[in-house]
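Need the bound structure for pyridoxal-5'-phosphate, inputs here:
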Amino acid sequence: MLAEHVAEARTGLGPVNVRPEPDELAEELELSRWIADGGMDAAALEEWLPRYLDATVRLHHPGSMAHQVAVPSTGAAVADLIHGATNNPMAIYEMGAAGATIERQVVRWMLDKVGFGSGAAGVLTSGGSLANLTALLAARAHVAPDAWRAGTPSDLALLAPPSAHYSVRRAAAILGLGEDAVLELEVDELERIRPERLEDAVERCAAAGRRPLALVALACATSTGLYDDLRAIGSFCREHGIWLHVDAAHGASALLSERHRGLLDGIELGDSVVWDAHKLLRTSGLCAAVLTRRGADLHGAFRQSGDYLFNDNESVGFDLLDRALETTKTTMGLKVFLSLAWAGERGLGEYVASRFDTARRFHDLLSREPDVTCAYVPESNIVCFRIGDGDQLELRERALDGGRLHFGSTTVNGERNLRLVVTAPDTGDATLRELLQVLRGLLEPAVARAG
Ligand SMILES: Cc1ncc(COP(=O)(O)O)c(C=O)c1O
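Answer from helper R.:
Posting the output first, comments after.
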């Protein structure tokens, strides 16, 4: 049934998304009855599941372009089923040798792709937000080794562009720095860090009586999908002894494409890197990597010892409790591994390249339309544009009502844009034609009214 659901979504014939009232949906799915009475057997599940699937977002549908959520590969989906049946919380080796060994191998593969040397380390964790927090904890341990015991020193600052994902500011608050300790880096009109203004940022930091905890660069930015100049920023950070954290949650997967890997040139200068597999490596959530160039930095992130799980006994294998926030951790490595085992590294690279190319083609086609403005040429699979002069948010809301297309919006250079994230393998020219037709259909009455 699931395979049929996916195959049907891929044809693009049905809706992408439906938005029922939650109370009506709860009724339709008979939630209260099943919770109270139980007894769902295979036959009942077969009858119930289609109703559940009807109310899901069909990520495999070509019209699904709203969010940076992976379209799971068959391999990754099978991994979820295997984990669901075996449930090995493998952060402790003796609780899941296979899952732990696979994670170690997958992390080594990622470290190698990033270009970190043999002394590097990494761990898979529950999402990019947690990965950012973990990387900044490692940075704190590096800059203020006593902070775990004595608390975060009050003179630290986090240097980050305003375009950084909100989880970066959230991490600053959780770390006890407070949001006020986030010092904004100067960016250009497309929200990319201006490397030539970094010197000034460091001076501002010193003038405020603070020292940098870390400097955050984006590869790529959430809203625009544009990459910061990692080489220039990395060289600056090296020169000034500043920890560089590269948030490559979305864009690191371009490392698998020969033609696109140059976008991440200089990533190996980072002290820490975050890479979400559940964005472009086609795994379901949650699955993100935090990688550090010096392994000891990651081991220093969580400085605990002495209870029943942290013991120094010499036993077979290795534990990951000193690197990750989770105690119970799912077998995330299995998802990446089976996604790779299905498509191969080259296959996944071709998938990423094709989605980036399609986004670029969408831009080129959109730019030819008389009433469309594209503020920039896409570098990844994210395309932003404005159509007509009207309220783009309202336009989006009305376009979503049709259920055939799902896309988002963001601000670029202070202006509200429509935003497409080209992720489904079947999203192509026909999708864009349909999108333009729907948007024009909604714009025309407004034009007529204005006339
Ligand atoms: C650049 C960047 N960093 C971090 C995150 C947060 O990742 P997650 O949703 O896996 O927590 C996102 C999510 O969109 C992102 O785009």
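Comments: The radius of gyration is 23 Å. The pocket of pyridoxal-5'-phosphate is lined by residues 68, 127-129, 132, 165, 167, 218, 222, 247, 249-250, 276, 288 (CB under 6 Å).
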